[in-house]
Design goal:
The structure is a homodimer of 236-residue chains.
Chain A lengths: L7 H14 L8 E2 L2 H7 L4 H13 L3 E4 L3 E4 L14 H7 L4 E12 L2 H7 L6 E11 L2 E10 L17 H8 L4 E10 L2 H7 L6 E11 L2 E11 L5 E6 L1
Antiparallel strand pairs in A: 1-3, 2-3, 4-5, 5-6, 6-9, 7-8, 8-9
Helix pairs in contact in A: 1-3, 2-3
Chain B binds a DNA duplex (19 and 19 nucleotides) through helix 3.
Chain lengths: 236, 236
DNA sequence: AAGTGGTCTAGACCACTTG
DNA sequence: AAGTGGTCTAGACCACTTG
C-alpha cells in the first residue's frame, strides 16, 4: 500500500540501465533519440529527455547536439574510488579484523534522515552501530541507517559475524554511492568506543548507498585520524 | 560576433548566485519560489524551475516539497575523483577566489622528499606555500614541493596571479596522481594562516602528481574540517 | 486553504550534425 | 533535408508543508 507511483522518467532510466548492464547496448552504441523514446513509452518528449539527461549527468551516456546520444566509455576506478568491505581491507593488510555489535534497533526517522533515505518522517528505520577492530585496536565506528523496505530482515542479523557491508551486498547489491569526507571531532560516546580523547581529529565518511530499487543506507564511518586514512590513485 | 545567446535559466542562476555571494541571501534564507521567479524574469515556471534545480544539484540550494527553497549551509567540497584547480572549484560554487603567496624558494631535499620526488638527497627542490581564500575566508593552505628538473621556471612565477595547479598544468600536464587523505591537527603556523586554533581538526590531502616525464610535485593541502570536505559519486 | 515543489504534456523554434 | 539535442512556453494535476 501507499506504494509511491514510479515516475515515468524513472521507468525509462531503468530500462536504459538494463540494456547497458545486460550488454545489449555496448560502449558507443547509439541510444534511441528523445522522440523515439517518447513514442515507445508514450510520454512527452520532455519526459524522455529528462531520463536521458539524468543518465548523462551520471556519466552513463554522452550526448552531442545534432548527432545523438551514446553509451559512454566505462571508466576504470581505483581504490578510494571503490566501496570495499572493511574486513577485507584489513585482511589484505595482513591484519586481523573483528567486530563488535553495539546497537541494532529500529528508530523513528527525523526530518533529515527521511529526506536522505527517501522515507517519510515518523516512519521506522533500522539502525546499527558496529565497532571494527584491526589487531584488537578499535579502528572505525560504523553507524548505519538502513531502509527497512529494501532490507526487511536487517534486525535479525548478528553483525559480529558478518559486516553490514557484506550482508547488504547480498540483499541489495550496490549500484551507486556518494561519499562525503570530513575532518571532525567525535562526540563523547564515539571517543570512548574508539579509545581516543575528545581532541583527536577524526576522519568521517558519510556514505549513501543505492541499489537498483532505491536508497539502501546511510553510513557514518568515523575513524581516528592517526590510525586511518584514505587513498586513491588516479590515472588520466 | 557569433555571441551565443545566454539561456534564460542561466540568467536566473547567475542572479541567485550573486545574491548569495554578495551576502544578501544568507544561509537558510528562503529563496523566491518557482512561481515568483517565473513572474520576475518573465519566463515559464519550468524555466525558473530549471535554474533552482541545477543550483540544488550543485549544492548551493536545498529544496523541500511544500516548504520551499533555501540557501544551503555553506561548506566547500572538492571531488575525490578528479584533480581540479581550487580556483575553478570555488568559482563554480559562485564564490570568489583569491590567493596569497607566502613562500617561494629553493630548499634542500631531505631523505623522504628525495625518495618521493625521485631526486638525490641534498639536491635542490622548489617549494611554494600559497594560501587560498573563498570569499575572503582562508580555506586551504597549499604547500608544494616541485621537481626543478621538470619545471625549471617555477620560482619565477607569482602565485597570487595564477595557481600552482594552473601553472603546472601548462608546463607539465598531469598524467597520474595519488592522494592520501587524513584528519590531522595543524601546526601553529598553519593554524595562524587558516585562522583556526590548534584543536580544530583539519582535512589534509597529500598528493603526488606525475607528468609523462616523471614526478612533478608533492602537494600538502590542509583545510579546516568545518569549512571543507571532499566528495565523490560512484556509479557501478 | 494557500503556497510550494514534483511530474508531465503537447506543442514551438533553434543550432547543430549527418547523409 | 532530415534528424537530433537545447531551450522554452502555458498550461495541468499531484503530494506535501505551512499557517
Amino acid at each position: 500500500m501507499t506504494q509511491v507511483k514510479t515516475a515515468k522518467f524513472t521507468i525509462i532510466k531503468d530500462h536504459i540501465c538494463k540494456m547497458i548492464e545486460s550488454g545489449e547496448w555496448l560502449q558507443h552504441s547509439k541510444v534511441p533519440s528523445e522522440n523515439v523514446l517518447a513514442e515507445q513509452f508514450s510520454v512527452s518528449r520532455m519526459t524522455a529527455r529528462r531520463a536521458l539527461q539524468e543518465l548523462t549527468e551520471q556519466g552513463l551516456l554522452v550526448r552531442t547536439q545534432g548527432a545523438g546520444t551514446f553509451v559512454a566509455t566505462f571508466k576504470s576506478q581505483s581504490s578510494l574510488l571503490e566501496i570495499r568491505n572493511i574486513a577485507d581491507e584489513i585482511q589484505d593488510r595482513g591484519h586481523q579484523h573483528h567486530a563488535q555489535q553495539i546497537e541494532l534497533i529500529a528508530v523513528d526517522v527525523n526530518h533529515e534522515l527521511a529526506i536522505l533515505l527517501g522515507l517519510k518522517e515518523g516512519e521506522n528505520v533500522y539502525y546499527s552501530e558496529v565497532l571494527h577492530f584491526e589487531n584488537n585496536e578499535p579502528i572505525q565506528l560504523e553507524q548505519r541507517y538502513v531502509n527497512p523496505k529494501l532490507v526487511p530482515d536487517y534486525l535479525q542479523q548478528n553483525f559480529a559475524d558478518i559486516t553490514p557491508h557484506e550482508y547488504l551486498s547480498s540483499e541489495a547489491p550496490l549500484t551507486e554511492a556518494t561519499n562525503e569526507v570530513e575532518a571532525v571531532l567525535a562526540n563523547h560516546e564515539t571517543c570512548s568506543h574508539l579509545l581516543i580523547d575528545s581532541t583527536t581529529p577524526c576522519l568521517q565518511v558519510k556514505r549513501r548507498t543505492w541499489s537498483s530499487k532505491g536508497v539502501v543506507s546511510l553510513a557514518i564511518l568515523t575513524a581516528p585520524g592517526d590510525k586511518y586514512r584514505l587513498g586513491s590513485h588516479l590515472v588520466f
